[in-house]
Structures are given as structure tokens and as C-alpha cells.
Specification:
By secondary structure, the chain is of the alpha+beta class. Helices cover 34% and strands 19% of the residues. Bound molecules: flavin-adenine dinucleotide. Pfam families: Trp_halogenase.
Length: 513
């Protein structure tokens, strides 16, 4: 039996893994986490994805227990600024598209919409603009009817399934790791602060034990590599190759700042912003007491000095005394994240730039899949292959989705943005783009394996980015009555107004929490 797990690394990946495994298996599985005092965690990674709530639910943690401890805020969308042209923006919310007569409102919008797709077809953009919380003060999540109300004979199709959970969180990742340390240690995670200085292998090449600087040897059955970009166990010791995505996604550097904020005065935006710049883009993530911000760029187009000047100019005087954190990013994934008795989770497994806030999503996905594929003493190779396939597909799918962001952004005004239109695209993307030039994406024409993004996200991005739109609305719509679609547009406008009027501000909600 696999009875003891040793995790190397105490960043977000290490602590999420340790606490999740204890929550899943309790005392039946021993969990030891060793983290270096000398090597700090990466210190970024603050915006998340709407599935993250399952992580906290799984650990039995309510929002009021952990959010205030981690400076956390709600995130309902990503606002993309300047991707189409300077001065223009749109939201990519956690909100599915409504339907009218079996066609999405994105399809209908191409026929009957006017200027702003996101605000005409979705309610979350209005909540974002008004800086509202997604819950009323008694803690109830906002609810809207996705039906237009006026149509008693509404026709539905198979694609009308469950709704999308409307929010994720933004939090201070170092505070979360600290919070999870307390939670994990209380529930029996053995915590060692020390450096792993050597990794020993048996005659088959499997890890037999670790050697630490001060605590001697550490042995387990399964080893989890959460050592970040260095991939100490999986790459350095086991020699698993890392497959770069850089030919498709060239951004390989970031420079981050932590900037003070005054939420009482300015309110708190319930969204992350991604602002396109000359050679990359800047994230702005509002936490309760400060904003996290950083410039993601490609070294081929911009030096580190120029990048730091750009982000400081962007932030203004608030950045004056703030130290910049320059980060080199390893973009891509391992050929396999599970090799022998070692599983890599977090940056050691794979990473794409944080444009859709997927780093912590990959961690959560890796852990959930590990629990589902948990090995017994046979270490069944089929099980390990299945795990690797699932992880690889998820990362490759997000890579493809990000490639689409750059390819479909109308912007092509600098050498960096011009190159985004000329670079090769991964297998399958060119074909999908061709299909989308005749009709908007649906479940038959997006990346076919689970990667966290549904067709609605592709629609919202294509319509917002503006550089790759279908040549014409769907022909079928000309044969249908527009009345149901028009009622949906009216329902969105009405519900948006009602929500803005009834929901508290995000600041008031969090202050009361
Ligand atoms: P790290 O934080 O690097 O932790 C590595 C750990 O390994 C440390 O504790 C270190 O002490 C330990 N260690 C290393 N060597 C040894 C050794 N020899 N012995 C003992 N311990 C050792 N994700 C999101 O979801 N949203 C975002 O908005 C987002 N933004 C990002 C922006 C940037 C620029 C980058 C680079 C990443 C971003 N991410 C984001 C990803 C996110 O930061 C990571 O997924 C997350 O922080 C997990 O990191 P990690 O735990 O894998 O690695």
C-alpha cells in the first residue's frame, strides 16, 4: 500500500496538496511536507478560476474562515483592456451565454446586437462596473433567471445545461500558504523546514529517499515535487524532459509589484484586469489591502529595465518605494508529470502565463486527479499513463486557448503585436480558427478535452478581441423570429439594473465579513 507521501516544497502547490490529501484520506495516509528556509516561494499567483471554490469546500472551509486571513476578494471576470485597440475594453466573466430558440446570444448578437457584446448579452459586466459583491449582505449569492420571462413556449436544446458558478477569488498567495500551513499542521501534516540536498534512487531509478541538510533522511512511498520552476525531483533527478510552449507563447519574463490601496476610498474592483502593452500585458489584481500588479512580457521584445520602467509608469507614484520582483518563467509542461513514484504538481509540472489565471487551477486539477488516480502497490502503468494524459491535455488546452487570445486580438501595432499574427500555432488551432471564421465556437469546435474553458469563453473572447469574427451571422437566424432574442437582450438590461441596485459594494460586503 502507498501509506506515506512526502511533499517537497511549501508554496501554494505544496500546501494545497498537503491539505487536500489529508482532507481526502485522513489518518490513513501520512503526509510530510519539507520546505526550504532559504528558497522562498515565488510570491505571485493571486487571481483564480471559478472552480477554486471546490477546493475550499473540500477542506470544509467557509469563506468567513479563510478570506479575511488571506486579504481575499471576489473575482467575477477578467477585464481585457486595449487588446482590440487602445482605449477599448471588454469583460470575460464567469457567466454562460443565454439562449434564444437554441442559438446562443453570441450568435444572435452578431445579427441584432449594437455596440457592446458583453454588456448587452451578460449581466456580470454591469456588476463589475459598479464594483458590487456577488452576494447580498445576508450571504446569498445573486441569482438571475436565464429565461426571458415572456415566452411560455420556450424551445430548448441539449446544450442548455447547468449554470456556471459566477465567481472566483483573488487572494494573497503567501497568506494563503500560511493559512494552509496552520490548517494542515493541525490536521496532522508533518511539517519540516529544511533543504532537500540530495535525492537517492534505487536500482530501478525510483526515488528511495531524500537527504535533508539538518533532518537526515526522509523516506516515503510517493514523492510529490512542488519545488516550483526548478522541478528538482521530476526534472533534475528523474530527468523527465520539459517541453516548452515558447514557440507559441513567447512571454518568458514578468516583473511584479505589490502596491498599497485604499479600498474604503476607492472601492474594490471584483475583477482582474489584463491591460495589453507594447510588448506584453499588465495584470492588476485587487486584494483587500493592496493591489498585485505585474508586467508579463517577452525578453525578445523588451529588456528587464524597460519592463520595470513600463510597470512603474503604469502604476504611478504608488509604485515609488515598492521593490520590483523580476521573474523568469518556464512556459510549457513536462512530457509526463508522473514518473515512477514521483508526481509533479504546480510550477514543477507545467505553466502558462497567467492571462486566464490558470496556475492555481492546474494545481487543483493535478491534486484532484491524483486522488482519483491514487496508486496501490502495483503502481499500475495504465493508471499512471491515464493521469499523465489528463494533465497534459488540460495544459495543452489552456495553451491553445491563450494562443487564440493573441491570434484573435485585433491589435497589431507594435513589433510584438505584429508577431502574434505570424507565429505558428499548435496542431488543431489553425483548423479551429478556420471554422470560427464561418461560425462562432460551440462544443463541436473548441479544444475537445477538459481544460476548464467552455465554448462560452471562446465566444466572449472572440467577440471582445475583434480580430477574428465570423464573416456573417448564422444563416438559420434569418429564418427565425427575433422576438425571443430581443426579449433576452431586454432581460439582461433589466436584470443588470436590478442587480446593481440591490447588491452591496464589494468593499461593504468584505468589510462586514
Ligand atoms: P513555488 O512558489 O516556487 O514554491 C516552491 C517551493 O519549493 C518553495 O517553498 C521552496 O522553498 C521549495 N523548495 C525548492 N527547492 C527546495 C529544496 N531543495 N528543498 C526544500 N524545499 C525546496 N497562478 C494563478 O492561479 N493566478 C495568477 O494570477 C498567477 N499569476 C502568476 C504570475 C506569474 C508571473 C507567475 C510566474 C505565476 C503565476 N501564477 C498564477 C502561478 C502561481 O504563482 C503558481 O502556480 C503557484 O504559486 C504555485 O507555485 P509552486 O508552489 O509550484 O512553486
Amino acid at each position: 500500500m502507498v501509506r506515506d507521501v512526502v511533499i517537497v516544497g511549501g508554496g501554494t502547490a505544496g500546501w494545497m496538496t498537503a491539505t487536500y490529501l489529508r482532507a481526502a484520506f485522513g489518518d490513513r495516509l501520512g503526509v510530510t511536507l519539507v520546505e526550504s528556509r532559504a528558497v522562498p516561494p515565488i510570491g505571485v499567483g493571486e487571481a483564480t478560476f471559478s472552480t477554486i471554490r471546490h477546493f475550499f469546500d473540500y477542506l470544509g472551509l467557509a469563506e468567513h474562515e479563510w478570506m479575511p486571513e488571506c486579504n481575499a476578494t471576489y473575482k467575477l471576470a477578467i477585464r481585457f483592456e486595449n487588446w482590440r485597440e487602445p482605449g477599448r475594453y471588454f469583460y470575460h466573466p464567469f457567466e454562460r451565454l443565454r439562449l434564444a430558440d437554441g442559438f446562443t446570444m453570441a450568435d444572435w448578437w452578431l445579427k441584432i446586437g449594437s455596440d457592446r457584446f458583453d454588456r448587452e448579452c451578460l449581466v456580470v459586466p454591469a456588476i463589475c462596473e459598479a464594483k458590487r459583491a456577488p452576494k447580498n449582505l445576508s450571504g446569498e449569492l445573486f441569482e438571475v433567471s436565464l429565461h426571458d420571462g415572456g415566452d411560455r413556449h420556450r424551445r430548448t436544446t441539449m446544450s442548455e445545461q447547468d449554470t456556471q458558478f459566477p465567481y472566483a477569488y483573488q487572494f494573497d498567495a503567501s497568506l494563503l500558504a500560511k493559512f494552509l500551513t496552520g490548517y494542515g499542521v493541525q490536521r496532522g501534516v508533518k511539517h519540516i523546514r529544511d533543504d532537500v540536498v540530495d535525492v537517492k534512487q534505487d536500482e530501478r531509478g525510483w526515488i528511495s529517499h531524500l537527504v535533508t541538510a539538518e533532518h537526515g533522511e526522509l523516506a516515503g512511498d510517493l514523492y510529490i515535487d512542488c519545488t516550483g520552476f526548478r522541478g528538482m525531483l521530476i526534472n533534475q533527478v528523474l530527468g523527465e524532459p520539459f517541453e516548452s510552449y515558447q514557440q507559441y507563447l513567447p512571454n518568458d519574463r514578468a516583473v511584479a509589484l505589490r502596491v498599497a490601496a485604499d479600498p474604503e476610498r476607492d472601492g474594490i474592483r471584483p475583477y482582474t484586469t489584463a491591460t495589453a502593452m507594447e510588448s506584453g500585458w499588465i495584470w492588476t489584481i485587487p486584494l483587500f489591502h493592496r493591489n498585485g500588479t505585474g508586467y508579463v512580457y517577452a525578453e525578445d521584445f523588451c529588456s528587464a529595465e524597460e519592463a520595470e520602467r513600463t510597470i512603474r509608469r503604469f502604476v504611478g507614484p504608488a509604485a515609488d518605494d515598492v521593490e520590483a520582483n523580476h521573474i523568469r518563467m518556464r512556459v510549457g509542461r513536462n512530457r509526463n508529470s508522473w514518473v515512477h513514484n514521483c508526481v509533479a504538481i504546480g510550477l514543477s509540472s507545467g505553466f502558462v502565463e497567467p492571462l486566464e489565471s490558470t496556475g492555481i487551477f492546474f494545481i487543483h486539477h493535478g491534486i484532484e486527479q491524483l486522488v482519483k488516480h491514487f496508486p496501490d502497490e502495483s503502481w499500475d502503468p495504465t493508471l499512471i499513463r491515464a493521469y499523465n494524459r489528463t494533465i497534459n491535455r488540460c495544459l495543452d488546452g489552456v495553451r491553445d486557448f491563450l494562443v487564440v487570445h493573441y491570434r484573435c486580438a485585433a491589435r497589431a501595432d507594435t513589433p510584438y503585436w505584429k508577431a502574434t499574427k505570424e507565429r505558428p500555432v499548435p496542431d488543431g488551432v489553425a483548423e479551429r480558427l478556420e471554422v470560427w471564421s464561418t461560425r462562432l465556437p460551440d462544443e463541436t469546435s473548441v479544444y475537445p478535452y477538459y481544460h476548464g474553458f467552455e465554448p462560452y469563453s471562446y465566444n466572449v473572447m472572440l467577440l471582445g478581441l475583434g480580430g477574428h469574427l465570423p464573416r456573417a451571422p448564422k444563416a438559420a437566424l434569418s429564418f427565425l423570429d427575433e422576438a425571443a432574442a430581443r426579449r433576452q437582450l431586454a432581460a439582461v438590461a433589466r436584470q443588470s439594473r436590478e442587480l446593481v441596485a440591490s447588491l452591496p459594494s464589494q468593499y461593504d460586503y468584505l468589510a462586514s465579513m
